[in-house]
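Aim 2, interim progress: modelling of the zinc ion-bound target.
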Amino acid sequence: MNRSITRSLLLAATLGALCLTGVAQSSKSAKPVKKQAVELKDAKGNSVGTATIKSSGNGVEVKLNVKGLPPGEHALHFHQNAKCDAPDFKSAGPHFNPEKKEHGTLNPNGHHAGDMANFTVQANGTSKATVKDAEVVLGTGSESNSLFANGGTALMIHAKADDMKTDPSGNAGDRIACGVITK
Ligand SMILES: [Cu+2]
Ligand SMILES: [Zn+2]
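Predicted structure of the complex, ligand included:
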């Protein structure tokens, strides 16, 4: 091959690679998200309200505004996949667990980053509870513990309370409401 053609091909390839690197870097340096609204849907696909996730300290706080749920104590977790396929929401995968730990704050080998305290639904089926999670961030999505990492995560409400120790799911029963968290 002619030497000058070879040289221009090399130059084109190098420029192409530089462009790709530029794109990757600009998406990584995107501004961190401070607040994110999530719509929660039940197994029938009906909306049961919203959760507002806000940066708080080194983690986040989740402010629920939900209705139409069974009264009593319920588990709340962040799950690994940004997928809420009704009716069982299995598509959301296990608890968000970037540090490869076991489930539960009472588990000596715990806990998952996505584990949170239980919250209470009132007799009229509503809740405006606020629950904190110090182990996850909204961030830019490039942090390993970002709720936007690897395409996002899901916020899940369960039928029962979490016992905070049974691996991998806290014995929290069915998944009854789910909301996708994506950037
Ligand atoms: Cu869960
Ligand atoms: Zn867990």
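DSSP finds one helix and nine strands in the chain. Residues 75, 77, 79, 95, 156, 158, 172 surround copper (II) ion (ligand 1) (CB under 6 Å).
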